[in-house]
Amino acid sequence: MERRNDFTKGSIPGAIMRLAMPMIGAQIVNALYSMVDKMFIARLPEVGTLAMSGVGLTLPLILLVSAFAMLAGMGGAPLCSIARGAEKDEEAERIMGTSFAMLLVLGLGLTCLVLPFRIPLLAWFGATEEVLPFADEYISTYLLGSVFVMVTLGMNPFINSQGFSRTGMLTVVIGAALNIALDPLFMFVLGLGVRGAALATIIAQAVSAGWVLAFLTGKRCILRLKRENIRLSLPRVKKIAALGASTCVMNITDAIVSFAFNRTLAEFGGVTYLGVMTVIGSVRQVLMMPVTGFGQGMQPVMGYNYGAGRYDRVRECFLFTLKASAAYTLVITLCTQFFPELFFRLFKADETLLTAGAPALRLYFSMFYMLTLQIAGQYAFVALGQSRQAIFFSLLRKAFIVAPVAMLLPRVTNLGVMGVFAAEPISDFVGSSACFITFMLTMWRRLRHPPEEGEEGKRKAQEGNA
Asked: pLDDT tens digit string along 184-212?
């Protein structure tokens, strides 16, 4: 198994796809069961559209939970890959244990901090009297199981980073299948409505968390989660947080964008456009999964080869990911431009929602193909341990471009509510271009002209990561 997962040998495209395809499958399933939640909610008798709009308003808080899970998971997993490539397995296991301790502390802390203030927060997000009860029912239940969500999201990357991507995929498939099975039971048979959807989610996540921990403590793993390593080692916490901050910031900025969208849409478009944004957000979550899967499949291979001083293979990782992502995003861009109504019909949208939503979705996805540049640069920065650059470009695209533009365009132009949806393509173009150009002018130049390959390159790569 150790030889099979030695990423300095064999085909780079083969290694990336062997990791990426199960990750993509897992993430699509994960996004689909989130979307299925909303599909079931949209079918609640008489209150479907209101309930779906209310659940959509909880997205910033859900993204906050995901953000801190990614802080520990996506910060620790690349460090594990680099350490394993440098043949420091004991240090890699200590990094994993520290990440797990971080997840437990962050999960409990977030629940205790957010739960008492959920009502004012939802009102601040734009919840009206019509949709607030539905939003409250969903998020109050969801937060009680946030520790399970964080352990699943935060520890699964440690399975993938060791090359066990099929097992990582099963983590998500198990949770998704259980969630989809429980949704109609809790929502319609037991009559729990929106609260039943949230309850199904946290039960499914609890089972997935158990699966992850059983695997990471079992005999099949190369690196294992050991009890003696589950502690908050301050030096490792700092390294994990520094590298994971970029992915964490990406999720936090997504939460900020969701907040900006919902506030402005509530003001300029009302409940109908809140429902439109809920559908578009769900569709985007599914469509983003393959391209982020390519990036996540690249990271262990790139990080391992970087730790081993194989810069030629690091360059090959980047170029393959760029080409694969470009092909996918171009196809999706064309589909959203020609068939926007199809995505709304999946949610049993009424004519009002369909009429308002089709042009909004077409505008929102018009520059989706530019995300190829953002994903390739962003994930490469993280894989190579360049946390500052990764954090900056996370902030640039979302916090510095999308959120301000979404709030300003409807107010300073005659675009009205469509100005909110125009913010995303503007950001896709400007932010993605800046990220890619910076990567090519900095890291790509270093990778093309490394000091030495092999042992000397390995030593210098390790010194740079330290």
From this structure: 999 999 989 999 999 999 999 999 999 99
Determine the Cα–Cα distance for residues 173 and 195; give it in Å rounded to an integer. Answer: 22
Amino acid at 155: M
* 415 phi and psi angles, rounded to 5 deg: -75, -25
Contact (CB, 8 A) for 2 and 253: no
Q: Which residue has the tokens 């194989």?
A: 310
Q: Exposed e or buried b for every residue in 356-382, given b needs 16+ CB within 10 A? A: bbbebbbbbbbbbbbbbbbbbbbbbbb
265 with 417: CB under 8 angstroms?
yes
Q: What mean pLDDT value characterizes the chain?
A: 86
What is the per-residue pLDDT across 228-278, written as a single tens digit (0 to 9) for each?
999 998 999 999 998 888 778 778 878 888 888 888 988 888 888 888 988
Tokens, residue 101: 């301790």
Three-state secondary-structure class, residue 201: helix
Q: Identify whether the C-beta of residue 171 lies closer than 8 Å to the C-beta of residue 30.
A: no
Q: What whole-number distance in Å separates Cα of residue 83 and Cα of residue 80?
A: 5
Which phi and psi angles does 320 have, rounded to 5°?
-65, -45
Angle at 87 between CA 86 and CA 91, to 5 degrees: 95
Helix (H) or strand (E) holding 325: helix 311-338
Q: Helices 234-268 & 89-114, crossing angle to 10 degrees?
A: 40
- Which of the two residues, 259 and 394, has the higher pLDDT score? 259
Which of 88, 459, 166, 420 minimizes the C-alpha distance to 276? 420
Res. 366 pLDDT band, cuts 50 70 90: very high
Cα 73 to Cα 102: distance, rounded to the nearest angstrom: 9
The dihedral through the CA atoms of 333, 334, 339, 343 has a sign that is negative
Burial letters for 403-432: b for 16+ Cβ neighbours within 10 Å, e otherwise?
bebbbebbeeeeeebbbbbbbbbbbbbbbb
Q: Tell me the two tokens of residue 415.
A: 């675009």
Reported as a single tens digit per residue, the pLDDT across 323-360 is 999 999 999 999 999 999 988 887 776 788 888 999 99
